[in-house]
Specification:
alpha+beta; 3-stranded antiparallel sheet; globular
Length: 84
């Protein structure tokens, strides 16, 4: 594929809605927590300034939290199923 590239920046599911809104030309509401990933495609400065971390919280059948960076993944889980 001509022009194909791999961008190693970390994005999360929270970034999907702002990315789709930006791609459709719709203004992203200020209350929205994620970031549009579109600037990563064309702007080296945007890639350098990207937060490049992903925070995860799981709380269905177990409680777990994680942070992921390009170099590390750290996670903690409570396998007992306690929610507090």
């Amino acid at each position: 594929m001509e022009g194909a590239q791999q961008i190693p920046s970390l994005v999360s599911i929270i970034d999907i809605a702002p990315t789709l809104l930006a791609a459709a030309g719709v203004t992203i509401p200020e209350s929205m927590k994620g970031l549009s990933a579109l600037p990563l495609l064309h702007d080296a400065k945007a890639r350098a300034e990207w937060p490049n971390k992903v925070l995860v919280q799981i709380s269905e059948s177990m409680t777990g939290r994680a942070i992921r960076t390009p170099d590390w993944t750290y996670c903690v889980a409570d396998l007992s199923g306690a929610t507090e």
